[in-house]
Give the backbone structure.
Amino acid sequence: MIKVWSANASSDLPGELERRCLNWLTPEEVERADRFRVLTARNQHVVGRGMARKLLASTVDGDSVAGVAQGQIRRTFSPTEIVFSFTQFGKPFVIAPQPLVRPFNVAHTDGMVLFADSQGGSVGVDVERISRRTDVALAERYFAKPEVEYVMDHFDADMKLHAFLRVWTLKESFIKAIGTGLSMPLADFAFENIDDQRPRVKMLNPSLEDGRQWQFITFSPRDGYIAAVAIDDTDQQSPPEMDLKRFESLLSTVEG
């Protein structure tokens, strides 16, 4: 099961969601948030990091997420107890407390933040606002040839933009899952059956063939947004399901 939580981050002045999330940040993260001059970016940072800390620290019912070793006392953790480290490409991961270590990823765009986690393999998620200003000609510069053809075969401007963002979110979810970011050429792999809810990926660069089996799910977390999640899953007979929930639903039941 891939768990995905969505939150509607404010595009303007911080609201209740941002206030609650700010309480779960460390002083260093609050200081970093205060350096953002654009409110939208600040809100996305606060909500994204606050969501990650709260959801990694505990489940909805308050039990510890991953439990503890046999014979030890089961306990919950405070969101501020979590210690993050970062890969060379900036992807965060948990290094402590040990029971909370598991794959996760955060994505954000104007008005929307997503958090995805998995008890299994690597996970990546991306989201885009469909109304964003984007030059679809970037497909010819960055996408693989079959993907360029897929985008350009849409003659209506809105449909062409939607097709571009569908491919873009899939590609972003994959490079975020493997932790390389945009350092990997996006034309080294191509998606097939792009209009399906579960597209497939084909590695065009042989060096990307490492034995891992990737699953992808495209979805809309809210009207006006398109998203994709990627997970390294070896069970081809039983593809993972996605559980999408609203983070705001927790605000009336959690402290802070």
Observations:
- The domain at 9-102+250-256 is CATH 3.90.470 (Ribosomal Protein L22; Chain A).
- The chain has two domains: 9-102+250-256, 119-239.
- The chain is about 25% helix and 25% strand.
